[in-house]
Every structure is written in C-alpha cells, then in structure tokens.
C-alpha cells in the first residue's frame, strides 16, 4: 500500500498482517515481501552450515564470508609457521635496507575473529626482514624510499638502450610475476605469503555492490525506448543544438537526414570499439545536447570510413565535424554541470571529442587534445570511481548517483565505470604510439571490469528468462592472473583494458628504473621486461584465443552481419584487430621518439630536432638494431604488416589497406610506426638499397615524377620475408610463439633493406587522410624512401 508521509514523501507499507514495516522505495518493499512469501529457498552449500535464504545475492554474500574467514585462518596459520625466519627477496628494492626502525609506523593488529570484510581489508600485515620488524600499512611504507618513488611525478620515457648482452630477454634470474606485482602494487594483502590471491582483495567493495544492484535491477523487466529513438531527430532537437553552435544553422550538412546518418555511423563504428553508452536506453530527445553534438561530430568524421558512398548524403562531412569540434570543448567546460563529481555525459563527451581531435582532425586540434587529455582523468579522480583514500584496495560505486530507479542507477554506474576504464585504455594507447606521458597507472584502477557485453547490449530483458550472469573480476585481480599465466575468459572490452594494464606496468617499471638510476641505485634495477613481454604473449594466447585477427574477439556485434558495419569490423575480415598488441611489444625494446627522429621528423611536440639529437638517436638505434631486442621488435612489426596485407595464412590472397578509410581507431598510426621501426632497423644495419638519388637537392616531387624501377613491391617484400622465416624454422604458417626463433633467423635473410616498394605502397595512401598527423606520416615515409635511394641529408 502506498501513502504520503507527513513530510510529503511517498511511503510503501507492508500489507501482511502483523507486519508494520514501512519503506521509502517500492523495490525495497517488493524485496521485503519475499521474506513472507518466498518463491525459492537458497541453501548455503558450505559444509556444516544449514542456513537458508530467500534471496540468492544474500546467500552468495553469506558464502563469501565463509570463504574469507576460512582463507584468513589459513593465512594466519601459514604466517605463524614462517615467524622467526627472514624474508629474503633478491628482486626487492628493499633488499639493501637494514638496521632501520620503522616501529613508529606500526598499526596495532586487531585480534578479533569476527572482523567484517572492510576491517579485514584495512589490517596491516607484519613480516620480518633481516631480523628487524617492519610493518606495512596496506603495503606502503609511510616515509620509505620506495613509497617516495611510487609517488614521484611522471617522468619521460627512458631513452636508454641496453647492449646486446642485456637485451637477450632470457635472463637466468628474472623478476618473477609474484615479486613484480608485490613490488609494483606494494600490497602484502594483495598476495598472501603463499603466493595466492588474497580473499580480502577479491571479495569486497564494488564487486559485491554492483552484483547486488544488477540482481535487483534484473528482477524488474525494463521498458526501453524503441530502437528508432537511437538515431531520431526532429526540428526541436536541431533547434536546441543550433542554439549552442549558431554557425551550424548555415551548414548544409546539418539537417535531419545527415544527423541521423551521423548517429547511425556512431553506433556502427565508434560504439563497437568503445561501448561507453548504453544503447538500448538511449533516447535522443532526453540526451544532453552537448553529448549529442559530440556523437554527431564523430559520426560525421567517420563517414569516410564506412566503406560506402556517403556523397549522396553529405556534401562536406569533415567540415561539419570540425564546425562542432572547434567550440565543443569550451562548451563542455563552461556547462553548469561541469563540476565534480562529474556526470557520465561529461566524461563520455570528452572521450568522444578527444578521439576525434587525435584521430580525425587537424594538428591544432590534435595538440589541443594533448594539452587537455588529463582533464577527464582529473574529473574521475574527484569522484568515487578513482578518488578517495589512495590506500583503499577498491572504490565503492554506490555513491556515484542519487538515482532511485534501479535500472537507471545500474546504467549510470556501469556507464561511468566504462568511461573510466576506456579513458585508461585510450590514455595508454596514446602513450604508446605518440610517446605522450601516461597519467593513469594500473595500480590506480580499483574497479571491477565491465559487465558482460551481451548484458550491456540487450535491448529486451525478461526477468523470467535472464542470460547467465558471471561475476566480473577486479581489474587488478585479472591483471595479476595474466602475470601468473592463469587462464580465464574476458569479454571484448575487458580484453583491451587488460592489455592496456600490462602496457602501463611496462611504463611504470621504466619510470622506476629511471628513478633508481637517477639516485644511483643501479643495484636494485632488475630485468623485468621479460615478465611483462611474456604476460602480453599470454594475453594473446589465453584471452584472445591465440589470434588478434578475429573480429568476434575484438568486438561485440549483437546484430547480424547485415552490412551496417564497415568491412574491417565484419566477421569475415582477417586484418589485425589488436594492432596495439604488436606495436606495444615492438616499442618495449625501442623508444618511439628514436624511431620518429631517425625517420627524419624535423621536430617532435613542437621541439625542433637539433643535429646533436639526431646523432644521439642514431647511436641508440645502432645498438638496438644489433641486439636480439632489435630483431624481436622488427619481427613483431613484420608479423603485424603481414596480418594487414594478407588474408589469414594464405600468402596468395593479398589485402588492400587504405589508412584514409580505416575505421579502427589508431590503427593507421600503428601501421606507420611499424614501417618506421622496420626501416630504422634495416637502414641502420645495411644502409640505402641504391644510390639513385644521392643528390641532396632532389625535391620530394621529383621522385613522384620519376619513379625508379622497384626490385619488388610491398606485398612481395612482406611475403618474401615471412615465407623465409617460416621455411627456416620448418613452419607451415607463421606462429606467434616462434618469434624468438624468427628473430634468430632474421640475419640470414638477404636484402631486407630493399624497402622502397613497401614504403611507397603506404606513402601514397596516407596523403588522403583527414588527420593532419597521418598526412605527416606520408612526408616521413617519403623521407625514408629518399634515404633508402641514397640521399645523404637526414631530413
């Protein structure tokens, strides 16, 4: 029964005789009624416990408490056995610290056996080191050296290239995955003394709350808008948008037909790669106008990448996109709702805007995106998602919204979480391919991974016929399993986020190396790259089923392959869908800055390249090219280019690749960077392939007007290299796990430096890109061509 209280708020009373309980929300009343008339009883499966529950989620929480208590007792017993013995870690930076008293930082240990999970999570763990007792509060030393290093501001990427002996990536004494995670995350509660994942870390915070919330929400069948409203616009919506950007009223492409097409392109290209919006509940009349503008902008910008002729709809789609992009950032920042904690539409709009600025626009907007790329991260840090106590091991998300409707609340929370995780992923990609400083590291992500893709995309949900639900693991829990080579399944978006996590660990360890080198502590530097390198290989084998070509592995496509998706994201496309995997592995051994400067970039990040810069880079490139690390880098790039130019394992079926039409974000950048890695490696070792253009006065246009006779074209070159690698190792196809064998065989392949045909294959196609950065790649490739044909001048 519903009634009004004295204060005017609605109250819901239980109508069962003798029960006088009153609730402020109808769903709470519905849940309470299960106690009177339960449909099903759920029994605890723990041995010796006969408790029954009327709600499945309450039963699962109860069982989790059994697990936590049991694991806690095991942990205490193992700890007692190890008391009195010294903990010796040859890989720890604390190895040389002794005779130092940190007892003033000790936190009294609570001896209660009835401790709640939250209290368990906040306990400190003591252990012995060199017969002196140290106490870590949540794994951090209060004012210790390593704590200071962990909080040092981001440094630039390490430019040091080690010699051949230290770059063999097969050291006798590696930093073990367990040691690496303990050092990196500095959390003795994260991994217990037995090397197992701590139950305190797995079962807490956001996982249980989100699981409970989703179960409550799925008890109600939602009524989502008709799918037509995902692309619907009318005169009222258009009028509202032109009030924000008046110049749109004069744009011939800002009509209902063009806007609806832009929205369709957004869902078919951008949403497939970055599903940050909940499509089933998307309703254009109620979407914030600035978010709608950002969607129209990216849709118009991607109209050149659909694989269809859009000229019948758009006159100049790129002009429409730029017209929106120019003022959009300032409109978002000047909005009354631009405050912390940020609403989901703010973060979503910034992600979409930055994706356009970085990948589809002119250099001015690209540079603006870089200057402001930390904005969304700072907003997220001022929210319960990433903010709060930095020593907490999980962040609660029940404070993210005050929404009372369960479905809207679940969608808002999941949307914000996805926005945060996608921001992390994109930040990592840009750090990899552009050399930007990374601002969000893996250990700062305390969230669970996104929910299952099918659940997120379901447009019709029947509470009586729900899909199977699995608990989403914590991000760091899943990341640690990868480092420990444990297999598990993950949906498409989670695969990308986990790969980003491994790459950020690489960058973070490089910063630690820089810091200890700066302090003169060379003795604590460890060979850790092999651990990360092999973890990324494990990611490919276990999480991606051994292939980075499979469309279904990279994207969730809920609709049939009906032609609405561009060719490169259809089921039968075999080109690489995870290019960041290949370039991440390649650039683990060589700096992106070195490749760009060696290829002839006159400046980087507005800093002009001096002669001394080029000389220093040239020396580093030579050391790298003569090492196994260099050969591994170029093998990764060869394998990637093979996946882009040939269908599957069929050497006879050539593929056409046009970066100006590529709908997969950042893949054109990665293709170009791979070409620079291949050219730098081979040119450094063998020099130019001919002296046809040794005259330094030759202009760029001269080569176009006077093409030389190429020894082989681009497809023939890649086919020859890869066929030789297979034959020398008796393989019937290319095996990713044989990369080291291929690297050892690379020196036996002749004429690897005859690259002009390969470079020209791509150079002519980058000229037509809308992105200024991609057009600049064309100039760099032209520079490499002329250097390979004998020109002496570097740039």
UniProtKB/TrEMBL annotation:
Compositional bias (Polar residues): 83-101
Region (Disordered): 69-119
Entry keywords, A to Z: Metal-binding, Nucleus, Repeat, Zinc, Zinc-finger
Cell compartments where the protein resides: Nucleus
SUPFAM superfamilies: beta-beta-alpha zinc fingers
GO MF annotation: an example: zinc ion binding
Keyword Electron transport applies: no
InterPro entries membership: VerF-like (IPR051059), XnlR_reg_dom (IPR007219), Znf_C2H2_sf (IPR036236), Znf_C2H2_type (IPR013087)
Coiled coil: none
C2H2-type domain location: 12-41, 42-71
GO biological process: DNA-templated transcription
Compositionally skewed regions (Basic and acidic residues) per UniProt: 102-112
SMART domains assigned to the protein according to its UniProt record, in alphabetical order: ZnF_C2H2
One Gene Ontology cellular component: chromatin
Signal peptide (residue range): none
PANTHER family: MIP31509P, ZINC FINGER PROTEIN YPR022C
Protein name: DEHA2B16038p
Organism: Debaryomyces hansenii (strain ATCC 36239 / CBS 767 / BCRC 21394 / JCM 1990 / NBRC 0083 / IGC 2968) (Yeast)
């Amino acid at each position: 029964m519903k009634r009004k209280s004295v204060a005017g708020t609605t109250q819901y009373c239980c109508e069962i005789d003798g029960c006088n309980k009153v609730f402020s929300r109808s769903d709470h009343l519905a849940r309470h009624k299960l106690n009177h008339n339960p449909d099903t009883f759920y029994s605890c499966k723990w041995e010796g416990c006969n408790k029954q529950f009327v709600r499945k989620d309450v039963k699962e929480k109860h069982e989790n408490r059994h697990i936590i208590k049991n694991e806690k007792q095991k942990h205490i017993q193992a700890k007692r056995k190890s008391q009195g013995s010294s903990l010796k870690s040859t890989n720890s930076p604390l190895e040389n610290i002794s005779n130092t008293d940190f007892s003033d930082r000790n936190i009294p240990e609570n001896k209660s056996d009835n401790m709640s999970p939250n209290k368990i999570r906040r306990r400190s763990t003591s252990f012995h080191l060199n017969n002196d007792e140290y106490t870590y509060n949540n794994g951090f030393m209060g004012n210790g050296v390593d704590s200071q290093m962990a909080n040092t501001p981001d440094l630039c990427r390490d430019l040091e290239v080690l010699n051949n002996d230290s770059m063999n990536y097969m050291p006798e004494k590696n930093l073990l995955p367990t040691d690496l995670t303990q050092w990196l995350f500095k959390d003795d509660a994260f991994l217990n003394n037995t090397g197992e994942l701590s139950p305190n870390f797995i079962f807490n915070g956001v996982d249980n709350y989100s699981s409970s919330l989703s179960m409550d929400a799925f008890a109600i069948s939602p009524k989502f808008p008709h799918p037509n409203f995902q692309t619907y616009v009318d005169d009222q919506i258009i009028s509202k948008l032109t009030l924000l950007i008046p110049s749109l009223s004069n744009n011939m492409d800002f009509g209902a037909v063009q806007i609806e097409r832009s929205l369709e392109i957004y869902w078919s290209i951008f949403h497939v790669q970055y599903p940050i919006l909940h499509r089933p509940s998307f309703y254009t009349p109620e979407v914030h106008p600035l978010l709608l503008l950002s969607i129209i902008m990216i849709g118009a910008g991607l109209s050149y990448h659909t694989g269809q002729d859009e000229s019948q709809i758009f006159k100049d789609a790129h002009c429409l996109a730029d017209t929106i992009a120019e003022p959009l950032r300032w409109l978002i920042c000047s909005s009354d709702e631009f405050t912390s904690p940020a609403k989901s539409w703010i973060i979503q709009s910034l992600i979409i805007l930055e994706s356009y600025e970085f990948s589809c626009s002119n250099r001015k907007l690209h540079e603006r995106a870089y200057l402001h790329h930390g904005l969304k991260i700072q907003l997220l840090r001022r929210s319960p998602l990433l903010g709060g106590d930095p020593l907490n091991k999980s962040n609660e998300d029940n404070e993210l919204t005050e929404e009372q409707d369960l479905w809207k609340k679940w969608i808002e929370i999941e949307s914000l979480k996805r926005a945060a995780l996608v921001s992390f992923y994109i930040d990592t990609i840009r750090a990899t391919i552009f050399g930007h400083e990374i601002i969000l590291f893996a250990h700062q992500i305390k969230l669970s991974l996104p929910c299952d893709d099918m659940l997120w995309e379901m447009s019709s949900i029947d509470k009586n016929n729900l899909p199977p639900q699995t608990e989403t693991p914590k991000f760091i829990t899943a990341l640690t399993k990868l480092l420990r080579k444990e297999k598990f399944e993950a949906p498409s978006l989670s695969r990308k986020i986990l790969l980003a996590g491994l790459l950020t660990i690489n960058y973070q360890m490089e910063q630690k190396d820089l810091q200890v080198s700066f302090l003169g502590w060379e003795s604590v530097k460890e060979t850790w790259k092999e651990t990360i390198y092999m973890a990324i290989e494990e990611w490919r084998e276990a999480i991606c089923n051994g292939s980075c070509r499979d469309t279904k592995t990279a994207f969730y496509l809920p609709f049939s392959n009906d032609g609405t998706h561009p060719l490169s994201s259809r089921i039968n496309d075999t080109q690489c869908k995870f290019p960041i995997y290949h370039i991440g592995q390649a650039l683990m051994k060589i700096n992106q800055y070195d490749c760009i400067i060696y290829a002839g970039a006159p400046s980087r990040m507005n800093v002009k390249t001096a002669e001394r810069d080029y000389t220093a880079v040239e020396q580093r490139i030579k050391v790298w090219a003569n090492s196994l690390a260099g050969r591994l880098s170029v093998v990764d790039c060869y394998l990637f280019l093979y996946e882009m130019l040939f269908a599957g394992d069929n050497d006879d079926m050539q593929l056409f690749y046009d970066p100006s039409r590529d709908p997969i974000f950042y893949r054109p950048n990665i293709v170009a960077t791979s070409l620079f890695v291949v050219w730098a490696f081979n040119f450094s070792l063998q020099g130019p392939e001919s002296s046809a253009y040794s005259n330094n006065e030759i202009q760029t246009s001269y080569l176009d007007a006077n093409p030389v006779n190429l020894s082989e074209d681009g497809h023939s070159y890649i086919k020859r290299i890869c066929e030789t690698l297979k034959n020398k190792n008796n393989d019937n196809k290319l095996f990713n796990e044989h990369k080291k064998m291929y690297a050892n065989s690379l020196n036996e392949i002749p004429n690897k430096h005859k690259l002009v045909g390969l470079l020209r294959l791509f150079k002519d196609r980058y000229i037509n890109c809308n992105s200024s950065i991609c057009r600049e790649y064309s100039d760099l490739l032209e520079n490499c061509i002329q250097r390979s044909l004998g020109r002496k001048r570097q740039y």
